[in-house]
Amino acid sequence: MERSMTKYKFGTPYIPSYMDLTNGPEPCVVCGDAATGYHYRCMTCEGCKGFFRRTIQKGLSYYCKWNEECVIDKTTRNQCQQCRYKKCISVGMAPDLVLNENQRRAKRRLIKENRDKRTREEMLRQSGLLLASRLTEAEENLIKAILIAHQETTYLFRRNSTSSDEDGGEPDTKRVKAEDDKTALMNLAEIMTPSIVKVVEFAKRVPGFKELNHEDQVLLLKSCCMEIMCLRIAQKYDPDTQQLIFSNGMPLDKSELKQGALGELVEPIFDFAVGLARLQLTETEMALLAAVLLIAGDRPGLKDAKSVELLQDTLLTAFQHFINETRPTTPVHWAKILMKITDLRTISARHAERLLCIKLDKSQEIPQLFLEMFDDCNTTL
Questions:
Q1: Inter-axis angle of helices 332-361 and 283-294, to 10 degrees?
Q2: Which residue stretches of the chain are H helix?
Q3: Record: fold of 137-376
Q4: Which of these, 356, 288, 299, lies nearest to 322 by C-alpha position?
Q5: pLDDT by 10s per residue, the chain, length 381
Q6: What is the CATH T-level fold of the domain 15-123, as seen in this structure?
Q7: Distance between CA 212 and CA 304 in Å, rounded?
Q8: Which is deepest, 45, 140, 164, 192, by most CB within 10 Å?
Q9: From the CB of residue 159, how many other CB atoms can be counted at a distance below 10 Å?
C-alpha cells in the first residue's frame, strides 16, 4: 500500500484541478460556469474575471432593483451587476490584484522583454551548436589526408573499360569459372591479394594509425580487412548490370560467385552493395567510412584500447561535422552511414565462420595461400 501511494505521489504528474476534466470542469465560484483558472485569487470563468477587472479599472458603481438579493448563476449573471460584483467580493476576489493602466503597460513590456530574451538565448544556443558542428582546420586536414590515402590505394574501374591499372590487360573472366572449388579459391585468392595489399597501404596512411601499438595495428587490420574490401567492392557495384566489379576490372554476377566455396556470402554482399548504392556516398564519405572501419576501439584483444578509442572519437567527430556541413538538409544520412558499419561487420563475421568450417571440414582442399591471406591479412608493417 505504501509503495503504491509513493508511486502515485512521485510518478503521477501534477494536474491543476481546473485542467483535470475527469469529473467535469471546475465551476466558477461566482456564477457556476466552467472556470478557466485562478483569477484575482479565486477560481472563476472568463466572464466573471473580465467583469471584475473592468469594474475595478473603470471605478464603476452599480444599483440593484431588487434589494441586492439577486441569485447569481450562469443565466442570471448579466441581469444584476451590483449583486454580481458583491458576490465577487464575498467569494474572495481581490481588487488590489487588478492592475491599472500603467501597471498593465509595464506588465506587457516585461512579457515582451522576457520573450525577446528567450528568443535571443535560443538563437545563441543554436549558433553555438552550429559552431560546434563546423569543421575545424585540424579536421579538414585529417579528412583531406584520409581522402588522399583512399584515392591512392583504390582503383575505381570505369564501366565499359577493357583494361585496368592493376592488371594492365583485359579482365580474365575465365579465372572464376573453375571446374572445382579448390581452383576457384586459388583464383579468388590471386584476385584479392592486390586488394589486401592496398588495404594495408591505406591503413598506414591514415593519420595516427602508425602511432598506435604495433600489435594493435596488426589486430585492427586483421579485423577490418574483409570489411574494407567488401566496402570497396560494393563501391564498384554496377546497378545497370547488377554486377560487382573487382579491382582488376572483372565483372561478376551472383550466379558466377555462388559457384565457389564462399558462395553463401554472395547474397549479403550483393544486398549490401545495393543498399550502399542507394546512399549515393561521395568519395570523401567512402574514404572516411573505411577509416572508421579501420580504427575501431571495440575490437577484442587490443593492448591499448584507450589510444584506439581516442583516435576513433577524433575520426567520428570529424566525419559527423563533415556530414553536418555537406548534407544539412538530410540529418538522417549520418545514422544511415553508421548502420552500414553494422552490415559490414555481420558479413565479416559470417566470412570468419565460413573459413573456420572450411579449415575443419575441407582443410586438404583449400589452398594455403587463401587461408594465410585472411589469417594474417599480409600485415607486414
A1: 50
A2: 2-11, 46-58, 81-90, 101-132, 137-152, 181-205, 214-235, 254-257, 266-279, 283-294, 305-326, 332-361, 368-376
A3: Retinoid X Receptor (1.10.565)
A4: 288
A5: 444 444 444 445 555 555 566 666 789 999 999 998 899 999 999 999 999 999 999 999 999 988 888 999 999 999 999 999 999 999 999 999 998 888 888 888 898 888 887 877 666 565 455 545 678 899 999 999 999 999 999 864 433 433 344 433 334 444 444 445 555 555 666 667 777 888 899 999 999 999 999 999 999 988 888 888 888 888 877 777 777 766 656 666 666 555 555 556 677 788 888 888 888 999 999 999 999 999 999 999 999 999 999 999 999 999 999 998 888 888 788 888 988 888 888 887 776 666 656 555 554 455 554 555 455 444 445
A6: Erythroid Transcription Factor GATA-1; Chain A (3.30.50)
A7: 8
A8: 45
A9: 13
Output the DSSP codes for 178-230.
-SSHHHHHHHHHHHHHHHHHHHHHHHHHSTTGGGS-HHHHHHHHHHHHHHHHH
CB of 291 closer than 8 Å to CB of 231:
no
**Pairwise CA distance, residues 134 & 139, whole Å:** 9
Evaluate the CA torsion angle 123, 129, 135, 136 in order and state its sign: positive
Per the document, the length of the chain is: 381
**DSSP code of residue 264:** G
| CA–CA separation, 211 and 213 (whole Å) | 7
Q: Which amino acid is at 373?
A: M
C-alpha cell recorded at residue 339: 548502420
Rounded CA gap, 160 and 171, in Å? Answer: 11
Q: How much is the pTM?
A: 0.57
Whole-angstrom CA distances from 109 to 53, 102, 104, 105, 119 are 20, 11, 9, 6, 15
Give the DSSP letter of residue 38.
E
Residue type, 1: M
Burial of 268 (0-12, 13-18, 19+ CB in 10 A): middle
Contact 125, 267 (CB under 8 A): no
Q: What is the dihedral of CA 146, 147, 153, 156, to 10 degrees?
A: 150
Looking at residue 259, its amino acid is Q
Terminal Cα distance for the chain, rounded: 68
Q: How far apart (Å, rounded) are the C-alpha atoms in residues 288 and 172? A: 32
Question: What residue segments make up the domains of the chain, in order of their start?
Answer: 15-123, 137-376
